[in-house]
Write a structure and sequence with these properties.
two-stranded antiparallel ribbon, alpha+beta, 6-stranded antiparallel β-sheet, Beta-Lactamase, about 200 residues
């Protein structure tokens, strides 16, 4: 074969190989860019969904707290309490327990839901407390002998839920703290319950 013809064939082959390499490179870059854009969009979408879900859970917890606060404010009978404090609080706690269990059954985002009465009303640390435990709603009994709560100032971290919302007409979030009664690190949203100027206690989730 003529040497010049072989040379021409080699040049043409090299030319088309170069074109092919360029085309493959462009295709790869476009594909990489497309994949990167798609990945970025999915990451953003996932982050937004997680943020929205997280926000919705917090809003729901606040809603539970606000609803239970309103319930206590409208159903706690101050006159009946003053007439027979011990008997009335006992009966009211039973009524409150049913309401709390019913409210908590509607959502699993809140770990627990409870009312802490003003200790000056009962001369003891009375609470109505229910929580999700192993997929079921169970009553929680605080160990007031081993876990002495000091309802006095200055308050400690675990008592922030009781003191921080007092004097406010809105709920507040606490800083994370360790709850020895349930052996977990928690944070909570709580509201002080006032009936006119009468401080009934705190409701929190």
């Amino acid at each position: 074969m003529d040497r010049s013809l072989v040379k021409a064939i080699c040049v043409i082959t090299a030319f088309f190989m170069a074109i092919a390499v360029i085309i493959c490179y462009i295709a790869a870059m476009r594909s990489t860019s497309y994949l990167a854009t798609e990945i970025d969009e999915k990451i953003v979408a996932t982050a937004e969904k997680s943020a929205n879900d997280f926000s919705a859970e917090f809003n729901h917890m606040e809603g539970l707290t606000d609803s239970l606060t309103s319930y206590v404010m409208t159903t706690f009978d101050r006159d009946s309490y003053e007439a027979a404090p011990e008997a009335y609080v006992k009966a009211y706690k039973e009524e409150l327990a049913e309401m709390i269990k019913s409210m908590l059954s509607t959502v699993k985002s809140a770990h627990s839901l409870y009312v802490t009465f003003n200790p000056e009303l009962t001369e003891m640390d009375d609470e109505v407390w229910y929580a999700w435990v192993d997929g079921e709603i169970q009553e929680i009994y605080a160990d007031f002998q081993n876990n002495v709560r000091k309802f006095e100032l200055p308050y400690t971290d675990e008592m922030e839920y009781f003191f921080k919302p007092q004097g406010k007409d809105y709920g507040v979030w606490t800083e994370p703290y360790y709850d020895v009664d349930i052996d977990e690190e928690v944070f909570s949203y709580s509201r002080a319950i006032y009936i006119d100027d009468f401080f009934c206690g705190n409701r929190r989730s």
